[in-house]
Sequence to fold (433 residues):
Amino acid sequence: MSVYLGESGCVEIQRTAVGSGFISGTLEIADVDQNAKRFSFDFPVSALITGDRIEIATQDKSNLELVKDHDYPDGLWYCHVDQTGGLRLYRTFADAVNGQYDPAIELVTPTKAQPIFVRNRDDDFNPLAQIQEYEITTNREAVDLTVLGDSFREQYANGLISGQGSIQCLWEYKYGLCDSTVDYSKELPNYFAQLVLRLEQGSLFKGRFYLHEQLNQAVWYTADCVVTNVGFAFSPASVVRTSIDFVTTGPIQLLIGQLPTYILQEDRYDILLEDGGRLEQEEPRP
Amino acid sequence: MSFSSGKDGRLYIDGQVAAKVIDWSISTSVAGLDTTTLGDLDRTNTAGIRTTSGSCQLFYYAVDPNNTSTNSASVLLNKIIKANSSGQGAESEKVLLRLGIVDGSSTEKYIEGLCLITSAAMTMAVGAVLAASISFEFDGAPRSMYL
Fold:
């Protein structure tokens, strides 16, 4: 008989949005600062969050005039949102959360105002940093079927399934140099505080909740989740913690097997798809 | 003597034990007719019309889905709801209801009478089992009772 410890658990999240939810706006000529590699357009505060992988598309299907040497109606990039609502685009999640000038994608000034759609579309799961504990509960709704004459209570066995849970984290909102606990590939707990306030696209995320994680054998729940509550606990004698409550929406799956991963080439690089994502495989990486 | 609860309840429809009954209730009221006259110091009255009515809930459940007579809720619904035939629906039927209490004695306690179903309602909802809510009113006095 085996005994499992909490150290084999982890949570991965994928940034996503409600249904086909998108933000619409107009990209004006003056919105793009080519030298600063920065642009903006009128979108609601909190609609976009640093690290989001966003698809930007023109509403009239004409070529998007925004990114240098990109002559397509749409594109998929990671974004960094600064304090004034300005956006920089990046090719990787790590670069986006870092927000530095050099790795930012070069922009071009559009020749005319362009009506655009922007929506969150990320194919990657990132592990959540600084988790102290998490719990997930699945429920089967019981409906009382007891009728007159029964001595024992009867229940309907095929009621609706729902799930909910909570995550306790040490609060963190930024990445630091040489910080081994929070590297740029991880999601920060503060993301949930932003997510619960996100407008237009809702506070939805895709979650993988690992009960046991090994390369060739893992057990995990996967579900779409809605953040319902984010709290902070401040106490003079303890570190700041954040508590995230969520409920699941749609199907919940309990999977056992090999972790989802990607096909690699002999040189160990990913095989990329046209949308910039990586080709998934069933077998793990060597 | 023992207390009675839901497990001791029975409902009979036209002499047959109804299946999947969630609850039944019965209420009898008498209209008091005022007979107070000048000079009286206290209000007096006499018994007027007596009304006995009740309600019950049944799961919409058929022992044999191909035979609606095995679905007690369906039997009651068909007493009041009549489909259009020759321009209009047929007249609603009365039903013999017997509300019983099995109290462990040799004789079941009951009240029985011919009833007119005055309302029937069903709600299909997420997270709930389909059931029929039936209200009825006795036609005249109960035929028999032993309470």
Chain B has a mean pLDDT of 92. The helical segments of chain B are 72-80.
